[in-house]
């Protein structure tokens, strides 16, 4: 019996070692597809944007095949843990709360967070009592509003920012909180965008908004996290990252 148990233990150890030394031939990236300029969905269902280009460049750098998987934000972490894909690249902030469930690479972007409202809305950020403020559900923006304004404002949560923008245009909410580039691309740079403006403070506090955007990976796939980290560094050293970023941003999206 003892001999059998020893053999079983050695087999289990060997199996674990094989799993840890996985040879990555294909990497599947979960991407939201509803957060321009990071990602959006074309009429034919294909995904485009900075995150998509980054995913493909990372795969080329790692010499693996790349597969893009569309995933709504609400289920993006559960689907990673359920192995629907191997990594998330979706403008996801690196936060301590998320790190309890998943691992992150180092940052690949860092963008300030802002409120947007119709021009002349006259919002007083010293007292937003009773105002309806829109956010995307289960985001760092949602957490920030809940912690700082939860007792005074009416937080309206949406599955995507497109829904929030529609209600802002219809006057159902007074403002939307999101990252500056997404608000710029989703509202200010669109037809009719001249009717809106950034209002209130620029928010970067790492307590809520983390250390920047990172690529999320399951905790057991530390070898993949390492490969992705090395690939991000390599893309920046070669200037490929900068070329991709220049297609979508007119400022340094990586930050300091």
Q: Can you put this structure into words, describing what you see?
A:
With 256 residues, this protein is of the alpha/beta class. The protein folds into two domains: 26-110 and 211-247, D-Maltodextrin-Binding Protein, domain 2, CATH 3.40.190; 113-203, D-Maltodextrin-Binding Protein, domain 2 (3-Layer(aba) Sandwich), CATH 3.40.190.10. It is built from ten helices and 13 strands. The protein has helices at 2-20, 50-62, 76-81, 96-99, 140-149, 161-169, 180-188, 206-209, 222-238, 240-246, and strands spanning 26-31, 34-35, 39-41, 47-48, 65-70, 87-88, 103-109, 113-118, 132-136, 154-158, 175-179, 196-203, 213-217. The strands form three sheets. It has a five-stranded mixed sheet. A five-stranded mixed sheet has the order 10-9-11-8-12, sandwiched between helices. A hairpin with a 3-residue loop joins strand 2 and strand 3. Helix 2 packs across helix 9 (222-238) and helix 2 (50-62) packs antiparallel against helix 10. The longest helix has 19 residues, at 2-20. The N and C termini lie far apart (60 Å). Residues 1-19 have low confidence and may be disordered. Residues 1-21 form the signal peptide. Its main location: periplasm. Residues 26-251 form the Ionotropic glutamate receptor C-terminal domain. Belongs to the bacterial solute-binding protein 3 family. Residues 26-252 form the Solute-binding protein family 3/N-terminal domain.
How are the SSEs ordered, and which strands pair?
Layout: H1 2-20, E1 26-31, E2 34-35, E3 39-41, E4 47-48, H2 50-62, E5 65-70, H3 76-81, E6 87-88, H4 96-99, E7 103-109, E8 113-118, E9 132-136, H5 140-149, E10 154-158, H6 161-169, E11 175-179, H7 180-188, E12 196-203, H8 206-209, E13 213-217, H9 222-238, H10 240-246
Parallel strand pairs: 1-5, 1-6, 9-10, 9-11
Antiparallel strand pairs: 2-3, 3-4, 6-13, 7-13, 8-11, 8-12
């Amino acid at each position: 019996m003892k001999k059998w148990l020893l053999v079983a233990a050695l087999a289990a150890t060997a199996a674990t070692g094989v799993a840890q030394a996985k040879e990555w031939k294909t990497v599947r990236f979960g991407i939201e597809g509803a957060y321009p300029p990071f990602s959006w969905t074309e009429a034919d269902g294909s995904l485009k944007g900075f995150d998509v280009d980054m995913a493909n460049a990372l795969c080329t750098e790692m010499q693996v095949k790349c597969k893009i998987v569309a995933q709504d934000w609400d289920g993006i972490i559960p689907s990673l843990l359920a192995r629907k894909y191997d990594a998330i690249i979706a403008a996801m902030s690196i936060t301590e709360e998320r790190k309890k469930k998943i691992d992150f690479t180092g940052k690949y972007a860092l963008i300030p967070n802002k409120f947007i409202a119709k021009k002349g809305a006259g919002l007083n950020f010293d007292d937003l009592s009773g105002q309806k403020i829109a956010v995307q559900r289960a985001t760092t923006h949602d957490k920030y509003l809940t912690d700082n304004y939860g007792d005074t404002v009416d937080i309206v949560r949406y599955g995507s920012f497109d829904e929030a923008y529609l209600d802002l245009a219809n006057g159902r909410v007074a403002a939307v909180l999101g990252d500056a580039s997404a608000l710029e691309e989703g509202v200010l740079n669109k037809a009719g965008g001249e009717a809106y403006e950034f209002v209130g403070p620029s928010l970067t506090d790492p307590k809520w908004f983390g250390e920047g955007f990172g690529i999320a990976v399951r905790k057991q796939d530390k070898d993949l996290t390492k490969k992705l980290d090395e690939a991000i560094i390599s893309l920046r050293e070669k200037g490929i990252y900068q070329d991709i970023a220049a297609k979508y941003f007119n400022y340094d999206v990586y930050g300091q």
